[in-house]
Amino acid sequence: MVEQAAEAIVAAAVRGLFLPGDRLVEAEIARDLGISRVPVREALRLLESQGIVASTPYKGMRLMQVSNAGVASLMRLRLALESLAVQEALRASGGAERFARMSLAAEVYAQACRLGDPAPIVLADEDFHAELCRASGNAPLLALWQSLARQLAVIWGLAQQGGPRAAAEEEHRTLVAAMEAGQEAVALATLDLHINWHRQINFEQVVAERRLRPAGL
């Protein structure tokens, strides 16, 4: 139940129901989810340990702040991790079937985009990149990526406010095809392009504009 509460809080952030810096009130979340406050309290502590929630004296729990500089730093770390995942996955033994789960995740992402709800889109994107890291066979690398995943989800949710990025579907497929063909340079170039989309978005402006809209719209 704690994990489900944590997922629900992240999903609400992805949908724009919570914005960066918003206070997360334990009693209100518990009421909305129809559960007791205990698992919500534990979920908030879990999210705090993952950098999604910040606790400050006299201000309570608040959703992580998002700045352009902070996004850039997180994306540099993400690019380093996933580039290493590509390299290690391609150097591992086995054929193209090693990337079957990535290919399936790419199609699940494409299907989620057709539905238009940002939460499943972000979850599917998260799953795709987790499969990339899993394909590396490097368990510590995967664990480190997963520790960042929910921070990435909040950022991806902000980027989804105008709808899913059209190029992402094709970039997923191109990345899988390059890895299946053993084309490391193509895979790394595609990954770099795919991750650095954030440079086109002013996240601080997105948050400011989102605050002017009614909740849930």
Automatic annotation (TrEMBL):
Q: Which UniProt keywords apply?
A: DNA-binding, Transcription, Transcription regulation
Please give the InterPro entries that the UniProt record associates with this protein.
AsnC-type_HTH_dom, GntR_C, TF_FadR/GntR_C, Tscrpt_reg_HTH_GntR, WH-like_DNA-bd_sf, WH_DNA-bd_sf
Q: Which residues form the HTH gntR-type domain?
A: 1-66
UniProt keyword annotation of Metal-binding present:
no
Q: Provide an example Pfam family for this protein.
A: FCD
PROSITE patterns according to UniProt: HTH_GNTR
Query: Which domain of life does the protein's organism represent?
Result: Bacteria
Q: Which SUPFAM superfamilies match?
A: GntR ligand-binding domain-like, Winged helix' DNA-binding domain
Please give the name of this protein: GntR family transcriptional regulator
